[in-house]
Amino acid sequence: MSDILKKDLKLLLFGGKGGTGKTTAAASTALYAAKQGKKVLVFSTDPVLSLSDSFKCKIGNKVTNITKNVDALEMDTDTILEEFRENYNATIQQIISEGTYLDEEDTLRFSELPFPGMDEFMALVKIIDFLDKDEYDLYILDTAPSGHTIRLLALPDLIIKWTDVLIKMHAKKGVIMKSFFGKAVKDRADRFLTKLQNDIKRVRATLMDKEKTQFVVITIAEAMGVYETTRFIKILESYKIPIGHIIFNKIIPNNKCDFCNSVRKEQQRYIKKIKKEFSYDIIEAPLFPYEIRGLENLYFFSKALYGEDYQVEFKKFSLFSFSKNTLHKPSKMHSVFEKDLKLLLFGGKGGTGKTSMATSTALQAAKQGKKVLVFSTDPAHSLSDSFDKDIGDKITYITKNVYAQEIDAVKLFKNLKKEYKEEVKNFFKRLLTPKRGISLPLDEEIMADLFDLSPPGVDELMALKKILDFIDSKEYDLFILDTAPTGHTLRLLALPDEAIEWMQFIIDIKTKYPTTGEVGDSLGTTLKTIKRGRKILTNPAQTEFIPVTAPNALSIYQTERLINNLGKLKIPVEYMVVNKIIPTNKCDFCKSRRKQQENYIREINKKFSKYKITEMPQFEYEINGLKKLTEFSETLFR
Question: Model-level pTM?
Answer without folding.
Answer: 0.69
